[in-house]
Design goal:
280 residues; eleven-stranded antiparallel β-sheet
């Protein structure tokens, strides 16, 4: 009888042990952060709007976002979000590892539908604040933005395309700017305007007999090219003019004209060249 009772006690112990282990696996240590969007006086911290928002255009989260300030009382995971207004809302999630003031970038989700001032409400923990976003009218955008065109006067051909890649590289001697139309197809045409300059980017005149370049190529062969360094094109010089650059919008506009080496390795005049791009 004693052995039987002992066996029952052992069986009961194992049962309780495994139940305990099973329960422990379901324990979550994922605590939500506690804090507020307001200062000690109960006033909402100001929200900073970065970027320009247009109706009918999906904003890019790396350049268009809302920066909010959070006073964290206890660390943990967080979800900070706005309500949905005008087809758009802003959200960010993550973890606060320390208490105190933190800056959080709320990323846009959706696409604004109407060009009006839009009010949003932000929620975090038990605090609620608001901000106003001005949605611009996309119909007023420059339709020639991120495009290029010029005319090869000798051959009577006008070329045009888009600028889908911009590069900026600061070096110890010069700042290098490249505006390009790139394609994954090696058999397609590619376009580039390259400028080397010192100091801040702004209006200026650049000639291709130095580090500056202009090139339209097909399969790596020049349709019209002028670049003294790479091609050693003596006598072929294109003048590139930066007409304007707005640091706020990062929009650059300019023109180019002059002489190039064409498909037939002869001098060809280009004129009425225009370009515009948003630097990224």
């Amino acid at each position: 009888m004693k052995r039987k009772n002992t066996f029952k006690k052992f069986t009961l112990f194992l049962f309780i042990f495994f139940i305990g282990v099973s329960c422990q696996r379901t324990i979550s240590w994922d605590f939500s952060a506690k804090g507020t969007l307001k200062d000690n006086g109960g006033n909402c911290f100001p929200s900073l709007v970065s970027g320009i928002f247009y109706n009918g255009i999906t904003p890019e989260s790396d350049s268009a976002f809302i920066e909010v300030k959070v006073n964290v009382f206890s660390p943990g995971t967080y979800l900070i979000a706005t309500d949905l207004q005008n087809g758009l809302r802003f959200v960010d999630s993550g973890s606060f590892n320390t208490t105190g003031i933190h800056l959080v970038k709320l990323k846009p989700i959706g696409q604004p539908s109407t060009p009006v001032q839009t009010n949003f409400t932000i929620h975090f923990d038990t605090s609620i604040c608001s901000f106003t976003l001005n949605v611009e009218d996309s119909s007023k955008l420059n339709k020639d933005l991120n495009t290029w065109h010029y005319t090869d006067k000798k051959n009577g051909i006008t070329y045009h395309g888009i600028i889908n890649a911009t590069y900026f590289l600061p070096t110890s001697s010069n700042n290098l700017l490249s505006l390009r139309e790139e394609t994954p197809d090696p058999n397609d045409t590619t376009f580039q305007i390259g400028i080397a300059f010192q100091g801040l980017l702004g209006p200026g005149v650049y000639k291709t007999d130095t580090l500056n370049n202009f090139a339209l190529s097909l399969k790596g062969r020049c349709i019209n090219c002028a670049w003294g360094v790479m091609y050693k094109l003596k006598g072929a010089i294109t003048t590139i003019v930066i007409k304007s650059y707005d640091p706020a919008t990062k929009i650059i506009k300019g023109s180019f004209s002059g002489t190039t080496v064409d498909w037939y390795d002869s001098i060809a005049t280009v004129e009425d060249g225009e370009f515009s791009a948003v630097l990224k």
